[in-house]
Amino acid sequence: MKPDLRIFYQLIPSSAQFLFLFGVTMFIKVYDILLFIPVAVASVIIFLAFAILIKEITFAQIMTFISALNPFSFGKTFHNE
After folding, report:
1. Which residues fall within 8 angstroms of residue 24, CB to CB, at 6 or more apart?
2. Per-residue confidence (pLDDT) for residue 80, from 0 to 100
3. Closest C-alpha among 19, 28, 68, 13 to residue 76
4. Which of 8, 38, 47, 79 could crosslink 17 through cysteines, CB 3.0-4.6 Å?
5. Are 54 and 16 in contact (CB under 8 A)?
6. 15-41, pLDDT tens digit by residue?
7. What gap in Å lies between CA 42 and CA 31, rounded to an integer?
8. Is the pLDDT of residue 81 over 60?
9. Cα–Cα separations (whole angstroms), residue 50 to 24, 54, 58, 81
10. CB 77 within 8 A of CB 68
11. Confidence class of residue 77 from pLDDT cuts 50, 70 and 90?
12. Rounded CA separation 22/2 (Å)
């Protein structure tokens, strides 16, 4: 039986995110929160973009997750469960 190496595909987006954050911290000292927030958002976008490119997740799954974070729909979600 051949081992399933698909689990290692998750290393691709995380390594791209790591390389981006490592490169940014080599050139910019991210101590200020106003500078850290855009860098953190950009790293998450890079992670999601690579995950979509290798078909680990879909754009529809990301949109479903984002819509589930809506604080105004928590009551409706709890009511449905």
Report:
1. 30, 39
2. 56
3. 68
4. 47
5. no
6. 888 999 898 888 887 677 778 888 889
7. 16
8. no
9. 18, 6, 11, 33
10. yes
11. low
12. 35
